[in-house]
Amino acid sequence: MKGHMHPETFEVVTVYDEAAYAALVRLMMRKLRRWPRYMLIGTGILSIAGAGYAMLIQNVISAPALLFLLLGNLMCVFGIFADKFAVRMMLASNKKGTKVENHYLFDEDGLEIRSGDTVKQYAFKDMTRVFETGEYLFFFFSDGQICLMRRLDAGGDYDALRAFIDRKLAAIRHKESARG
């Protein structure tokens, strides 16, 4: 069953397809962890520049200089296309022909996430952040886990679900701030 079950329970199923993995990788690489990509590109440029400088100074093409030139180019290409590589690796990690489905059940106690045989339960206090994009809602948890839910998968109940989550998180934040 999908959507609104009773006043304070929502169930949503999101398939982790290429678009979902791309959104997750885009969030990770462009918003949360930019430095690995920049480090790869910067190191690649330094390797290319160092190899070029060594070849100019020595006035000869040496094997180590060519190796640094090649590695520098590979690092730059990987840094530029890292998001595409990451999506491909995530898709390849799925069993052939199977799509990962996350079943989200939101209720008064929190969020239950079922994926295959795995079930994880999170209280709303374990939800450290909720980030919304045009198509997805990302959930960040205190154990470091990040999940995403396609907004359209909530159907016409998206606004009610979002208001429910915001209300629950606001109540928890209010309790925490009242404690000190």
Quick recap:
The chain is α+β, with helices and mostly antiparallel strands and 180 residues long. The protein has helices at residues 18-32, 35-58, 63-80, 82-93, 158-179; strands at 3-6, 9-16, 100-107, 110-115, 118-122, 127-132, 136-141, 146-150.
Q: Supply the helix-strand structural class.
A: alpha+beta
Instruction: Give, in spatial order, the strands making up the sheet with the most strands.
Output: 1-2-3-4-5
Mean pLDDT: 84
Largest sheet: 5 strands, antiparallel
Strand runs, count: 8
- Residue share in helix: 40-55%
Report, as a whole number of angstroms, the end-to-end distance.
Answer: 41 Å
Count of alpha/pi helices: 5
Detail the poorly predicted runs: none
User: Strand-residue fraction?
Assistant: 25-35%
Supply Rg. 23 Å
Judging from the principal axes of the Cα atoms, what is the shape?
elongated
What is the helix/strand order? EEHHHHEEEEEEH
